[in-house]
């Protein structure tokens, strides 16, 4: 009897270890192939669009502070498209108010000489060396970074709600971010976008 009990315990332990390894492998494969890689790439793209278009000479700091609210409508939209999360009446009302405020805040971008009338900025210390088109495109590029950030946030939320291991998810997400960073770092060499003028300096 003791021998049989030991055999049964050993068999159960072996079976448990086998299923555990299979489960971890399946989760790792799922995360690496779908959510985690996409979340890492989206997170790195958000960082790229926050650094270069977010320079004070391209997007004014006071406009950046206002445009951070774009994360709210982007997150609601991505949730609706990806995980089919509905929007309640109260949430829709709040979203409309936020969008209305964002539209009003972006009007100065299209007004000639708007920077000379913008309070809170010492124009003698900050030089805006951008054209009229650049004064529109750079803030738009800065805003698009929050779309990628919303995408990464929803991927993270969806994965954690599905019961996946937070530690495993974060590990693979940072791996995906690192791999995406190795590709996106070359954007620093693009003339007019990056900050490096010569390759040997890079």
From TrEMBL:
Sorted alphabetically, the keyword list is: Membrane, Transmembrane, Transmembrane helix
Where does the chain cross the membrane?
63-82, 94-115, 135-155, 167-187
Q: What protein am I looking at?
A: DgyrCDS1760
């Amino acid at each position: 009897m003791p021998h049989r009990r030991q055999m049964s315990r050993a068999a159960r332990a072996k079976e448990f270890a086998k299923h555990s390894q299979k489960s971890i492998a399946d989760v790792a494969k799922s995360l690496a192939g779908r959510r985690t890689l996409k979340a890492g790439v989206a997170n790195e793209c958000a960082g790229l669009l926050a650094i270069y278009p977010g320079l004070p000479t391209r997007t004014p700091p006071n406009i950046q502070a206002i445009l951070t609210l774009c994360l709210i409508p982007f997150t609601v939209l991505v949730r609706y498209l990806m995980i089919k999360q509905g929007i309640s009446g109260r949430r829709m009302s709040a979203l409309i108010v936020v969008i209305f405020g964002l539209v009003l805040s972006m009007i100065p971008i299209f007004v000639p000489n708007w920077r000379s009338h913008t309070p809170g900025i010492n124009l003698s210390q900050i030089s805006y060396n951008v054209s009229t088109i650049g004064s529109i495109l750079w803030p738009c590029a800065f805003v698009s970074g929050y779309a990628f950030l919303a995408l990464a946030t929803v991927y993270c939320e969806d994965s954690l709600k599905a019961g996946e291991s937070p530690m495993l998810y974060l590990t693979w997400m940072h791996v995906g971010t690192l791999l995406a960073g190795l590709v996106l770092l070359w954007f620093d060499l693009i003339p007019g976008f990056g900050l490096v003028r010569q390759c040997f300096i890079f």
